[in-house]
Amino acid sequence: MWQGLDIFLAVVEQGSFSKAAQVLDVSTSHVSRQIQQLEERLGTVLLQRTTRSINLTDEGIAYASKLKVIQQELVDANNELQGVQHTPKGPIRITGAGDFMANRVAPAIAQFCKRYPEVSIHIDFNARNVDLIEDGFDLAIRFGRLQDSRLIARKLSSRNMMLLASPDYLQSAPPLESPSDLHHHNCLIAISNRWRFNQKHGIEEVKVNSNWRSNNPQAIIHACKAGLGIAHLAEDIAADYVTRGELIPLLAEYQVDDNASWLIYPRKDLIPLRVRLLIEFLLEQFN
Q1: Residue 31 is part of a domain; what is its CATH number?
Q2: β-strands 194-199, 186-189 pairing
Q3: How many CB atoms lie within 10 A of CB 285?
Q4: Which of 1, 126, 159, 223 has its CB 3.0 to 4.6 Å from that of 228, i.e. a possible disulfide?
Q5: Where is the HTH lysR-type domain (predicted)?
Q6: Do 244 and 107 have their domain in common?
Q7: Is 258 helix (H, G, I), strand (E, B) or coil?
Q8: Domain end among 82, 117, 138
Q9: Region of residue 130 (phi > 0: left; psi between -120 and 50: alpha; otherwise: beta)
């Protein structure tokens, strides 16, 4: 009756036969065979396979949802019966990039590891907006606004933006009196070439032109200090350079205040204890 259920849930959790096999330390063919036998016993198809991906059928979605509830209840029942205090252990995979991730989030995670030494952390500093579910990440740190409805977003920190230029650049640059004047300037692009500003009729986007694009904020800072153009960066990244007079803030009255860094994780019925504890720990540290 129970044969193959743990393998089915592993495939659902990992998103592929090969990743499930790796987690369970079995062969991919064993996983495939167990899923096939489970479907034969149930008399229904749970997973649609293609050469590149697998997808749950409607029956598979309903079945997985009920199994996850049962699985969690079994874990809770065992712990209650044995009087065991859960000790979090195992890997947590996190993706993120930038100074905020390196200088603020990573130190907090290090403190979490001191508290729970049986947890192992893998941080991938990747500026690419990876698919958490497809690529097998537990958490992500992202800046901006959430687009993927499959994910849950919890705010870590509000991060207002600044428009910046060096004194040398401003000496010879065209006038800049409103966001629309950015069309006449070279802009240094970090994430998007559409910059958002408060205008008379609400928040509007201005499409900017650039001969410099980088997903590393420090590279943007160096280009801006060198007088190559105007940068649009988070306040916490640029504040020290403004204080020293190396960069000049511009059009402060037009800046939006809805930007933030977010803790992102997939919508799941069953989140491992170690991941739940890290989520709670980071929210506590930042809030």
Answers
A1: 1.10.10.10
A2: unpaired
A3: 15
A4: 223
A5: 1-57
A6: no
A7: coil
A8: 82
A9: beta
CA distance 41 to 43: 6
Q: Return the ∠ at Cα 244 (arms to 241 and 245), rounded to 5°.
A: 85
Residue 152 near residue 267 (C-beta atoms within 8 A): yes
**Looking at per-residue confidence, does 222 or 98 come out higher?**
222
For residue 202, the one-letter residue type is G
**What's the CA gap between 53 and 36, in Å, rounded?**
16
Q: pLDDT for 20-46, tens place per residue?
A: 888 888 888 999 999 999 898 889 999
pTM summary value: 0.60
Q: Tell me, yes or no, whether 197 and 270 share the same domain.
A: no
Residue type, 195: W
Q: How many domains does the chain have?
A: 3
How does DSSP assign 227-254, residue by residue? Answer: TS-EEEEEHHHHHHHHHTTSSEEE-GGG
Residue ranges of alpha helices (H) inside 165-229 are 167-172, 217-225
Alpha carbons 279 and 287: distance in angstroms, whole number? 12
| pLDDT tens string 85-97 | 567 888 999 998 8
108 band by pLDDT with thresholds 50, 70 and 90: very high
Residues 165 and 249 in one domain: yes
- Give 111-169 pLDDT, tens digit per residue: 999 999 989 999 998 767 777 877 778 999 988 766 656 678 888 888 888 999 999 99
Range of the domain at 68: 5-82
